[in-house]
Design brief:
ten-stranded mixed beta sheet; disordered C terminus; alpha/beta
């Protein structure tokens, strides 16, 4: 009789040839006993050799045919064939620290009241570029300061009890067909159901992603900013009280950044250049408000790096303010996106697994929650 593992580690991957080997090696060399976790990689229609590499490390490789359906879809498919009591999601461009899985196992066994636990990027991102270093260190800084109870979830390195995942309906693969805020939205549902989500910044992973200025602006605007604002507006009044981990401090700075963006237009139409001074004053104020972050960067990378990051950080707030405006218009013009009446995508997609999955008597995740269910 095969012993049921405590953890099922699920890695969604799409054309992850450059990072998947390092990711899987990090998982399989964990200091948690190999018998205590199984490893599943879900290949979301890759056209490279991602699955071939994964077969060297994984207990099961699921290959989804056709076009990519997004990490939400891929993670849900992995959850359907999982055997562990706890689902651990790891992005294909993350190398977990050797103690990460053990820390998760210990906490879930010691804290039956915790439904989900997620960690943080470390302060050693692999890409040396300024933008990559800034983005990863910003994430690290925010998560390191957020230890304790959270209202959201992070699937870059996060875990949730399988029973809670199924009860919540899994990731919303209908609204999030590309990498967006599907993990945040799942965490919000779990939180609103009265379950406890914990952020443990000692559970660490190294991020391998290379960020560019273009990919950063696209991510902040299209993949995170606008969808996040849309979700906040869909929640209605409760969102005004600080839901979705959007602190009042960040709301104020985002609003000020929007005013700063508006001032050049005011100066143009009124032909009074002094309005530009308002933008400058706001930029200085935002910088002063983030003094602790810049001190962290100064200690981590030195004065030149800290000074170089200031324009990127101001652009970050400016992008957030634009996302708020666009998200507001999208919400009021289109309302909530409507999922398809029938889930034809899942019925038509081909799924190959290695080795073949065992027969399962329990109801699948797909059968438990169909499009349109509340």
């Amino acid at each position: 009789m095969t012993t049921r593992p405590l953890l099922t580690v699920i890695v969604p991957a799409y054309n992850a040839l450059k990072t998947v080997r390092a990711c899987l090696e990090g998982i399989t060399t964990s200091d948690l006993s190999r018998e205590r976790f199984e490893l599943i990689l879900v290949d979301d229609g890759s056209t490279d050799e991602t699955s071939l590499i994964a077969a060297e490390y994984c207990d099961r490789v699921m290959r989804l045919s056709g076009k990519a359906h997004g990490p939400a879809f891929a993670r849900n498919r992995g959850a359907e064939v999982s055997r562990g009591e706890v689902l651990v999601f790891v992005d294909a461009d993350v190398i977990v620290h050797s103690d990460a899985l053990r820390r998760l196992a210990v906490r879930f066994e010691a804290e039956p009241e915790s439904s989900a636990i997620f960690g943080s990027y470390d302060d050693r991102p692999a890409s040396p570029g300024l933008v990559s270093q800034y983005r990863n260190l910003l994430h690290h800084y925010v998560h390191q300061r957020g230890r304790g109870v959270a209202q959201t979830f992070w699937a870059g390195l996060g875990a949730i009890r399988r029973s809670e995942f199924l009860s919540a309906g899994g990731f919303d693969e209908w609204h999030y067909a590309s990498p967006q805020i599907e993990d945040i939205e799942l965490g919000r549902r779990v939180h609103l159901a009265g379950r406890r989500i914990m952020l443990d910044p000692d559970i660490l992973g190294t991020h391998l992603k290379k960020w560019t200025l273009g990919s950063t602006l696209l991510a902040d605007f299209r993949h995170r900013g606008v969808p996040w604002m849309w979700l906040i507006l869909q929640e209605g009044a409760p969102a005004k009280s600080g839901s979705l981990n959007v602190r009042a401090f960040e709301k104020v700075l985002t609003g000020l950044a929007g005013v700063a963006l508006l001032m050049p237009w005011v100066a143009l139409f009124t032909k009074h250049a002094q309005w530009l001074l308002v933008s400058v004053a706001i930029a200085v104020l935002i910088g002063l408000a983030n003094t602790r972050f810049y001190v962290f960067l100064l200690r981590a990378r030195g004065p030149l790096f800290a000074m170089s990051v200031v324009p990127l950080h101001l652009a970050y707030y400016a992008g957030n303010s634009v996302s708020v405006i666009i998200g507001w218009f999208v919400h009021h013009l289109f309302g909530e996106p409507i999922p398809p009446a029938e889930s034809a995508a899942h019925a038509q997609i081909g799924i190959a697994t290695w080795p073949p999955p065992p027969r399962r008597s329990q109801q699948s995740l797909w059968e438990q929650r169909r499009p349109g269910d509340q």
